[in-house]
């Protein structure tokens, strides 16, 4: 690791969240980005929207949200009866027919988190106008962003349409436009809001670090990503971040324990999720159960190869490969394996990106519950594997969140340290 050079007056010092490197960053012009020279993590950007513009988009999303959540998106003509499917209708039907825990998992990602995300952005604008310091709101905003899954639900609509077409003719409702607009604007808001810039905007008195002291090396807060020199001390005499007041004395082994605990729990849940039926379809009082793999095989039998690939990738390949990748990264930390750091970081970023797409199957089940459950001739119900599968997705997502990639870079630094 090369020696750090003191920055000039128009530069600030930032410690990278991914690799712990100290980087001097100059003031950025419009549409410029600052990346870490070691791991290429994004350290700063000006290609973002102001809080005022983001709040306007959030208000627009909130206005469209009732149309996206409660109005019918798809309809089928099932045995002479028109049946509508909506997001809230699927969640409610799943809850009242004996699957409340599975319905709760779908509700969190498809209803609660999108609404909470938009409300947080609007509340931040109100706090700015009222000259308040919304420390808790900024922390929560950073935590819930990965759990907003409208884009995943959009793909689930397409998979459901392919799955139902063997039973009935499908009609796309005009309210689907409202859902598409809501999904587009939510994704746009997700990309354009800059949480780092909001921290600086609400706490301008906490200036960025511009000089390094040999006695006090810069520290980085993992919660708000603030680089600072001196801790604050709380009432229990524990060091905390001067900006967000998050604890700074959490030992590394505790994060590793949380990562292992959630990962092992997720692995345990994956066994019944793949063995037990995830859904039951009954025609003329003859019930057939489908597991995750048999559902993929049924799509292959219908000739829907692309849909089979999407379902296999999201429901089987991603959860299992994510488990193996996390085990590999954890073993690299514990046994100090000196493998390629670029390869390790690439794997770590992949599991962060694809983990949320595993919720696709639960969203499809929710839509199928509202479309196909009709009387004794055709009936569709959720199987016991659905809850285990949703729990495995949640637990493995938490595991990737708890894992600290700087532990991998510590091994790299020890390997390349000059005597």
TrEMBL record:
<dbReference type="Pfam" id="PF04403">
    <property type="entry name" value="PqiA"/>
</dbReference>
<keyword id="KW-0997">Cell inner membrane</keyword>
<comment type="similarity">
    <text>Belongs to the PqiA family.</text>
</comment>
<dbReference type="InterPro" id="IPR007498">
    <property type="entry name" value="PqiA-like"/>
</dbReference>
<dbReference type="GO" id="GO:0005886">
    <property type="term" value="C:plasma membrane"/>
</dbReference>
<keyword id="KW-1003">Cell membrane</keyword>
<feature type="transmembrane region" description="Helical">
    <location>
        <begin position="385"/>
        <end position="409"/>
    </location>
</feature>
<protein>
    <submittedName>
        <fullName>Integral membrane protein, PqiA family</fullName>
    </submittedName>
</protein>
<feature type="transmembrane region" description="Helical">
    <location>
        <begin position="136"/>
        <end position="160"/>
    </location>
</feature>
<keyword id="KW-1133">Transmembrane helix</keyword>
<feature type="transmembrane region" description="Helical">
    <location>
        <begin position="300"/>
        <end position="333"/>
    </location>
</feature>
<dbReference type="InterPro" id="IPR051800">
    <property type="entry name" value="PqiA-PqiB_transport"/>
</dbReference>
<feature type="transmembrane region" description="Helical">
    <location>
        <begin position="172"/>
        <end position="191"/>
    </location>
</feature>
<keyword id="KW-0812">Transmembrane</keyword>
<keyword id="KW-0472">Membrane</keyword>
<feature type="transmembrane region" description="Helical">
    <location>
        <begin position="260"/>
        <end position="280"/>
    </location>
</feature>
<feature type="transmembrane region" description="Helical">
    <location>
        <begin position="56"/>
        <end position="74"/>
    </location>
</feature>
<feature type="transmembrane region" description="Helical">
    <location>
        <begin position="354"/>
        <end position="373"/>
    </location>
</feature>
<feature type="transmembrane region" description="Helical">
    <location>
        <begin position="101"/>
        <end position="124"/>
    </location>
</feature>
<dbReference type="InterPro" id="IPR005219">
    <property type="entry name" value="PqiA-like_proteobact"/>
</dbReference>
């Amino acid at each position: 690791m090369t020696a750090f050079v003191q920055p000039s007056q128009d530069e600030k010092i930032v410690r990278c969240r991914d690799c712990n490197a100290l980087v001097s960053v100059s003031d950025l012009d419009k549409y410029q980005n600052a990346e870490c020279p070691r791991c290429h993590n994004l350290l700063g950007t000006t290609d973002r929207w102001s809080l005022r513009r983001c709040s306007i988009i959030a208000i627009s999303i909130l206005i469209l949200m009732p149309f996206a959540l409660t109005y019918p998106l798809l309809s089928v003509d099932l045995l002479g009866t028109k049946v509508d499917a909506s997001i809230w209708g699927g969640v409610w039907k799943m809850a009242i027919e004996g699957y409340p825990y599975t319905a709760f998992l779908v509700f969190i990602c498809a209803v609660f988190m999108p609404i909470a995300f938009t409300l947080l952005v609007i509340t931040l604008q109100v706090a700015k106008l009222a000259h308040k310091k919304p420390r808790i709101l900024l922390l929560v905003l950073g935590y819930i962003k990965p759990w907003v899954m409208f884009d995943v639900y959009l793909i689930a609509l397409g998979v459901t349409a392919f799955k139902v077409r063997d039973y009935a003719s499908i009609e796309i409702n005009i309210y689907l436009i409202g859902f598409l607009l809501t999904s587009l604007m939510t994704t746009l808001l997700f990309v354009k809001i800059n949480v780092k810039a909001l921290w600086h905007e609400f706490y301008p008195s906490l200036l960025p670090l511009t000089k390094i002291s040999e006695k006090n090396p810069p520290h980085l807060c993992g919660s708000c990503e603030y680089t600072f020199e001196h801790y604050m001390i709380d009432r229990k005499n524990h060091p905390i971040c001067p900006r967000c007041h998050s604890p700074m004395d959490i030992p590394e082994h505790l994060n590793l324990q949380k990562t292992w605990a959630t990962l092992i729990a997720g692995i345990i849940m994956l066994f019944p999720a793949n063995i037990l039926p995830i859904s039951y379809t009954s025609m003329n009082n003859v019930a057939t159960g489908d597991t995750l793999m048999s559902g993929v095989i049924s799509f292959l039998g219908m000739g829907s190869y692309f849909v089979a690939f999407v379902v296999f990738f999201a429901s089987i390949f991603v959860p299992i490969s994510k488990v193996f990748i996390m085990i590999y990264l954890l073993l690299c930390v514990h046994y100090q394996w000196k493998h390629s750091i670029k390869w390790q970081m690439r794997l770590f970023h992949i599991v962060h990106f694809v983990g949320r797409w595993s919720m696709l199957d639960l969203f499809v089940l929710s839509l199928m519950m509202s479309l196909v459950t009709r009387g004794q001739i055709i009936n569709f119900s959720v199987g016991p594997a659905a809850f285990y599968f949703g729990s495995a997705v949640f637990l493995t997502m938490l595991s990737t969140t708890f894992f600290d990639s700087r532990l991998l870079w510590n091994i790299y630094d020890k390997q390349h340290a000059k005597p």
